[in-house]
Amino acid sequence: MPGTKSSTAAARARRRTLHSCLGEELSDVERHELLSQKLAQCTVVFDFQNLNENLEGKEAKQTTLTEIFGYISERTGVITPDLYPNLFKMVSANLFRTIPPQINAFGDPFDPEEDEPREEAAWPHLCLVYHIFLRFLESGDFNQGVARSYIDNAFTMQLLELFDCEDVRERESLKTVLHRIYGKMLNMRSFIRKSINHIFLQFIYETQRHNGIAELLEILGSIINGFTVPLKEEHIGFLHRVLLPLHKARPMALYYAQLSYCTVQFLEKDPGLAETILRSLLRFWPKVNSPKEVMFVSEIESIMDVIEPAQFAAVCQPLFQQVVKCIVSPHFQVAERTLGMWRNNYFVSMITDNIHLILPIALSGIYRHSRSHWNRNIHNQVYQILRFFVNVNEKLFEQCLAEFRRQRDYERKRSVKSVTWWSNIEQLAMEKAALDSSTSAYSTGNSSQTSSTAPSQIMSATSLLQTPAHTTPTESQDIKRAASDNENAMDTLLANNGEVCDAKKDGVIPADEASSSERPSVADSWNEHPDEQPISKLENPETMCCDMDEDEFIQELDKFVDIIKSEDPDTAMVNGMILLDGSDSSGAVEDMIGSDMQSAYGYVQQG
Questions:
Q1: How far apart are CA 108 and CA 251, in angstroms?
Q2: pTM for the structure as a whole
Q3: How confident is the model at residue 219 (pLDDT cuts 50, 70, 90)?
Q4: With 70 as the cut, is the pLDDT of residue 125 above it?
Q5: How do beta strands 573-574 and 577-578 pair?
Q6: Rounded to whole angstroms, how far apart are CA atoms 449 and 479?
């Protein structure tokens, strides 16, 4: 015990000597030797899991690290090649350690906005070590030739492994250190890029968990910004194989901003990549993740700021197929974010230039689903989009609208015919089951003759041609004759049913059905006061579009489009940009929304 006390006292006296000697008048050789001793002293690593253990030693080490950082920051020429071994030994001893296991190793990844941050207990020491190493890399005395033997592949890989720690402060320090190494060590650049690619690929296809993806993407963003033009095949391959597949990872929200920045940086270097990038985004577009879909829309909007008109024309058709889906999305933020793209002057001008390609795709979806959204703001903005299309090219709008009506009528007739066919097939199945239960139906010719004349007892040709093996030639001929008569009767029945259904759909009821089909209309009350009758029901504040059937709504929407055509196009666009938020100080847009949009859906505040 006495020996232990004396050694402890000697160590304290030595620490006091080391602590005070840098401030004394020493020669350069003595000061250099003392700095080397201090670096060696700081290789001792303390256990911070037990906060009450070795308090004096932890405090002494922190003081020494602070002293070293201040010394190399204030003086020049103090970092000589013979200090490199002790410096890198100190850095490696303190930084390269086993990262503690994550708190939620098998659940959702760490979310800084939802989860409590986990801080490294030894950060008071680690922070100073990072500062010393960063000052060393930024120093004018840094010797790349000498450092090459220390900053090798193994050293860099250990730094990259630390990016998976949960302490955001350490990841920020690592980001700065790695960026400085990439700038100083030219021979390490290719290895650093490949190592980062490997981390990304492992994250995408294996683990889907890594804490430092955002920081690594920030480093890559500045690296991409320094790429020379034209881009190398290696860099384009990185975009296709690594950067774009990062969009399909589940925790994309943690690094969305950095990923979008890298994508836009590639576009600024090579605008010809726009089509490839947009088609990849459309391929990875989320199906059931609405917050992620909002991120995709935001990235599309960022790309629209830098895309060239020729590239936009090449990809506008598949792009607007997805844009229309987003506009009619039941998720309010997805629809609102997509409609907000029309506030971009450049985007609106490209739509105007390619309206002949976009309008046939966009009009059908917007026109068909304009009444189905639950949010009134989306209703207002969708109608502003229709107004925009009418003002850009009224003739093309009419052509697309006519094609839409023709397609709608065709689908309606096809639906009616399908329902009629299946109803008759069900009836025929019941008829056949009844006939099969009675063996006498095949022994007499009366049953086949009856089934060929009575519409309620029609039998299909295919079922009747499946003749039992024991039937006579005479019975087979009767059955085939009955099948032919049944096909004619089926065609007549379907034709009659189709005409009746079409007449009902078009509002034209046969005379013999007029008495049973007449019912009061919504417009009957308006007919009593012709002077107050509006041009379109959509202008009546008491009318809700969801109360109309599809045909009635389409007819009223046609009237509303006629109203749009009669207005001055300048009221719908200001400086080539359609306003969707009613922010025009003149009140013109507010009047449009108030008179046409809000009244169209009857959204009136009840006092």
A1: 8
A2: 0.69
A3: very high
A4: yes
A5: antiparallel
A6: 9
